[in-house]
Amino acid sequence: MAGRGRRGRQWVSEPGNLYASLLLVDPAPVPKMGTLPLVAALGVHRALRPFLAGSPQALAIKWPNDLLVDGRKICGILLESETLENGRHAIVIGCGINCATHPENPLYPATDLAECGITAGPEEVFPRLAAEIARVLAEWDRGAGFARIREDWLLAADGKGGSVTVKWQDGETTGLFEDIDRDGYLLLNVGGQRQRILAGDLFFGTAFGERGMAYGG
Question: C or N terminus of the chain, fewer CB within 10 Å?
Answer without folding.
Answer: N
